[in-house]
Amino acid sequence: RQRRPRPDGAGGGGGGGCDSRGPGGEGAGLASSESGGSGFSLAERRRPGGSRPRYEVVRELGAEEVRWFYREDRKTWKPFIGYDSLRIELAYRALGGQREGEAAAAVEPVCVRSGLYEVDVANAESYPVYWNQSEKIPVMRGQWFIDGTWQPLEEEESNLIEQEHLNRFKGQQLQESFDMEVSKPVDGKEAIHSLKLSRNHVDWHSVDEVYLYSDATTSKIARTVTQKLGFSKASSSGTRLHRGYVEEATLEDKPPQTSHIVFVVHGIGQKMDQGRIIKNTAMMRDTARKIEEKYFSNLATHVEFLPVEWRSKLTLDGDTVDSITPDKVRGLRDMLNSSAMDIMYYTSPLYRDELVKGLQQELNRLYSLFCSRNPEFEEKGGKVSIVSHSLGCVITYDIMTGWNPVRLYQQLLQKEEEELEERWMSYEEQHLLEELYVTKQRLREIEERLYGLKASTISKPPVLKFKVENFFCMGSPLAVFLALRGIRPGTSGSQDHILPRTICNRLLNIFHPTDPVAYRLEPLILKHYSNISPVQIHWYNTANPLPYEHMKPSFLNPTKEPTSVTEGESVSAAPSPTTSPVMVRRHYGESITNIGKASILGAASIGKGLGGMLFSRFGRSSTSTPQTLETGKDGAEGDDKKGTTAGSPPLPHSSSGFLEPAVELEHRIDFELREGLVESRYWSAVTSHTAYWSSLDIALFLLTFMYKQDQDDPDKSNLDSL
């Protein structure tokens, strides 16, 4: 057979931060690595199912037959993809198998796993590139593998077996027929060669039939008993071993290019559980990979998630708060100091800037590092989105908009001046006010000149080094902060009212219906959206869901919230335009004509006192969904009001207090997760705030918006189902 040509760019970087440095960068040959350059010129036998090629003559394993593995959290060994494994092996062979001395120090680390990690071949460990991690991730070179699971043998044992195999059988013909997958059973065969290990021994029944046996006492007894019963030694207690991995490693098996990076920002509690954002981001990344494989596998690019850990580097007050904390129930107090205290720090004029600067610097550091390792990212128009959780949403918003308390103070002063000018003043007061105005103007001019001189010597960099494409808020209290800063509903229906499109192209607020920390943003833009339900996020396995852009607004049902209510009171009650109504849920797609008001009234009247108040806050009718409309009336009046149904735009409604019912938002902002069919609403109120990270529904939602331009591009595949 002719030698197969080496693929172009044998050592080049793939997607996600792998540059062309390091071993193999000059196109290190795969066939020439320690196999005499004849690896691809031998006759091959390929196993059925597209597995790795196998050769008729025993020779040293080629780089493509070896597979490298990594192990996280002390779980099972996971194989690197072929592209990564091949480059690690070439680096290993550049060391000549020696992991100490000057040669080991000269070999640069190998970039793996879409550029998120690097492998130190000399020390057989891997570490992340973009974040700090105390525990190193061990890596291992696999040559011999267990049948069925294809887990590698420990490297020390594997090296001994490989050395013994080459010493005994190198150059010999393999005895299997050309196209057989399974060799003949070894029943009755005697071992032609054996090797004793520390706790095991290996028997060769033929060149390609190798079994591992445990030398533990129980294993020896079991082997003796089963052999006396007529079973063979191999079938009773032996584990078959395979030489070389089941799949050949190729440079074509590489990750796609990263077209979109997502910075994942944590909220409170990071001091209490350091490293939690790294684990949460890993969960979000893993669920996104599953969704990408299922729905976006035809795209040549992918989305990468990077954790932003901004809390641990801050000093703040040092240990002052800890020193004033009483000792009783110390565990609870420490938990509050490590979590809820972050909110107090952020509202403090003394420490707020430190929190903002910490997050801002970390975002810019990560972006600069990513671009330095992926020089084509900006050239090809790579996009950046931010996913923030809890308090992280507020800090991220303030960084993007440049908001600070000083601005609010200046607005209050300006308002006082306007009120002062409007009231009647004496001649002396008016004269003093004019002098004050002239003095302030003069002071402002001097400050601008001074700032101009400073700006000429020190150029102030932009707050963020990148434009934010999408800003996803999860479990966000941002709406409360904005309301307390004086933001009130407008009349335009534009996102610019709270976040200009020039700063961020799209704002999306994701929340679980029972998350007590989350609040809606849409009613801060248009007041009547407090009576319009948030958009329901599709379940990830929903067949042919309606695209979010095509989902029409639908009304909530305004009801009163007393602890006890009668049917007559409920029917006659008119909702107040200044209060938030109870959100009544219905089954997805269920018609309003099939829902009796008795279920709503019954749900509202359950319990009194504290139970009633809890239910009014967290209660959800088991026969409901927000994409439909219930007028709350019956008889002829109810029939007249039933014109607006699921999928129809909002119409004027006399009892809902709409000022401009024809005005709609340019884009929907509030998106609500669907409740589970069997989940406890009270328990989910406790757990829902931290339940976003591993949600497949959220992963599909995020990717749907981030891949939206690829879907809209007519030259690319159109994912109509999404």
From TrEMBL:
InterPro entries: DDHD_dom, PA-PLA1, WWE_C20G8.02. It comes from the Eukaryota. Residues 570-581 have a biased composition (Low complexity). GO terms for molecular function: metal ion binding; phospholipase activity. Coiled coil: none annotated. Residues 9-28 have a biased composition (Gly residues). Residues 464-708 form the DDHD domain. Residues 631-643 have a biased composition (Basic and acidic residues). Residues 1-50, 557-581, 619-657 are annotated as: Disordered. GO terms for cellular component: cytoplasm. Belongs to the PA-PLA1 family. This is DDHD1 Phospholipase. It comes from Tricholaema leucomelas.
